[in-house]
Amino acid sequence: MAALANDGAARHLVPGLALPDIALPSTHGGAISLAGQRGLNVFYIYPWTGRPGLPDPPNWDDIPGAHGSTPEAAGFRDLHAQFHAVGAGVFGISGQDTGYQQEFSDRCKLPFALLSDAGGALRSALSLPTFETGGVLYLKRLTLIIRDGELVRLIYPVSDPAGHAADVLAMMQDAA
Q1: For 110-149, how does the pLDDT look when each residue is reduced to its tens digit (9 = 90+)?
Q2: What value, to the nearest 5°, has the Cα angle with vertex 148 and ends 160 and 152?
Q3: How far apart are CA 56 and CA 60, in angstroms?
Q4: Domain residue extents for the chain
Q5: What does the DSSP 8-state code read for residue 88?
């Protein structure tokens, strides 16, 4: 898989940045704020998850970095215990509503919460990188590593969604 070029759209997300206190609906019930999470946490942001038998958004196959949300989630699922062992929580974030995310979470047996930014509050507050297709705005794939509500590291772009969780875990183990 070819590496995605860094378009600079996330250059403002720098270590030390305090995350906004925006509560996002969670597939585990209630709402979770990135700023309110204590300890070390990985928030991987993905554009969209499809459903078997339903079409992808228009031109999805032509958008670099669009495909891969299911393998990315499966990677974090499969390595969830190892993330826990290094003291890190894991969360996924997309612009899809919680009901849509809940179906995906149940189908893929995700042990961590997916958070919905369907209203775009986090996207707007952090000026998260986006792309548009079919008249819909989608978040670009990136990962925020946060400790006690402060950005420790940004990973952007994410060129290999299927291998991303393993890469993040290795980086965290090396830093420990």
Answers
A1: 999 999 999 999 999 999 999 999 999 999 999 999 999 9
A2: 40
A3: 6
A4: 23-65+82-175
A5: E
Strands 31-33 and 23-25: antiparallel
Is residue 11 scored above 90 in pLDDT?
yes
* Span 50-92, pLDDT tens digits: 999 999 999 999 999 999 999 999 999 999 999 999 999 999 9
Beta-bridge partner residues of 26? 115
CATH topology of domain 23-65+82-175: Glutaredoxin (3.40.30)
Asked if residue 58 has a cis previous peptide bond (ω within 30° of 0), the answer is: no
Q: What angle do CA 165, 169, 172 make, to 5 degrees?
A: 140
Locate 45 and state its tokens.
């942001």
Tokens 């206190």 -> residue: 21
pTM of the model: 0.97
The letter for the amino acid at 44 is: Y
Q: How far apart are the first and last CA of the chain?
A: 29
b/e burial code for range 134-161 (CB count within 10 A of at least 16 → b)? eeeebbbbbbbbbbebebbbbbbbbbbb
